[in-house]
Amino acid sequence: MPIPTKNIDETNEEFIERCMSDEFMKEYDDNDQRLAVCYAQLEDEEDRALEDINTKPTQEMADEAAQGLEWREEFGRGGTEVGVARARDIKNRVNLSIETIKRMYSYFSRHEVDKEGQGFYSGDEGYPSAGRIAWALWGGDVGFAWTKRKIEEIGKEEKFIDMKNKEIRTIDVQDLELRMDGDNPVVVGYGAVFNSMSNDLGGFREYIGSEAFEGRLEDDVRFLINHDGMPLARTTNGTLRLSVDERGLKYEAKLNPNVSTSRDLMELLKDGTINQSSFAFIVEDDSWEMKDGMNVRTINKVSRLYDVSAVTYPAYNEASSSVALRSMEQWQEKEEAKKLEESLEAEKLEGIKEEEDLKQRSLNEMRLKILKNKY
Q1: Do residues 183 and 308 both lie within one domain?
Q2: Which residues face 192 on adjacent strands?
Q3: Domain range for residue 204?
Q4: Dihedral, CA atoms, 92, 98, 101, 107, nearest 10 degrees?
Q5: pLDDT tens string for the chain (375 positions)?
Q6: What's the total number of domains in the chain?
Q7: 230: in domain
């Protein structure tokens, strides 16, 4: 039996508790050792989650780094050996480590103030200056913009690293297609459909906004069966292509016919045994409203797209999302607080009105007394 692995909807605390009581872990007599193994397994899961971020430099960055290396050789200035090594990695478009990306962002942030009037732009005196050449070695302006995006992705991934915010949805659209691209079968389908009301997810229904996947098509996404097992296609090697159209998030997964799981899936698709799609994701922004007596959630933006899958059971019909339910409860609490505040404000205004009415009655009574005494 293997060491337990963390489930999708399981918190760190829940995993550690389950791991400690697992039959396999009882082979460790020492509780401290057992706990250490469980935490090590958890850390491995977290490391793999960070590895999902696409850290391959863009071609524009590679062109900029190549220009920096040419300038340095021509003019004999600019950058350090570290910068030269970084330029070579960027030029060759090797996958950079998370720590390297953080160092790149730190370098760009420190030296951005040096650009104005320092030979950074064509026409400036001394162009290309040593600073401009060093800037190019690290990927230039396009590299700075890229590291900003990656730092934001890393921050989000680290924030949600314990996977407790991961959700899975299955669309009820039975139109998976199997095409041929030469000798390779290609599965074509939709992982998500926009602006289509889900069925009841356990106290709420759900829409996916048309801009929910903006910026997510470059994620390291896998094509799986039931969100599990060996990936059959992947965006980073070009076998999985994602696109967005008016209908939703479309995918095209090119399968390897030499892989037995791919052949099995082909047959199950042909006879209609598998005919639905699903996707796993983390929500960055959602909104709630009440429609026709039902709580309705709109997913406005997805911060991480993990996989698209061909599935045998629709998650919409199996169970609701505990993450979404937490979001709904927070919204309901805010709505209740808002209603309470409005009620208290209404009571306050009513009290003020009653007090003013009482003052007015008292004044009227005094006027009547004065008039009676006068006449």
Answers
A1: yes
A2: 249
A3: 166-320
A4: -130
A5: 577 776 655 666 677 788 888 887 777 767 777 777 777 766 655 555 566 788 999 999 999 999 999 999 999 999 999 999 999 999 999 999 888 898 899 899 988 877 877 889 888 888 999 999 999 999 999 999 999 999 888 877 765 554 567 788 876 655 678 888 888 899 999 988 898 888 787 788 888 999 999 989 888 899 999 888 889 999 989 999 999 999 999 999 999 999 999 999 999 888 888 888 888 888 889 999 998 888 999 999 998 888 999 887 654 443 345 556 667 777 777 778 777 777 778 777 877 887 787 778 777 777 777 766 765
A6: 4
A7: yes
277, part of any domain? yes
pTM of the complete model: 0.52
Q: Is residue 6 part of a domain?
A: no
Reported for 332-341, long-range contacts at CB under 8 A and 24+ positions apart, including other chains, are: 332/295
For residues 224 and 340, the answer to whether their CB atoms sit within 8 Å is: no
Spatial neighbors of 42 by CB under 8 A, at least 6 apart, are: 6, 12, 15, 16, 19
Whether 152 and 175 share a structural domain: no
Collect all residues with Cβ–Cβ distance below 8 Å to 182 and sequence separation of at least 6.
Answer: none
In a shared domain, residues 331 and 204: no
Tokens at residue 17, please?
């508790």
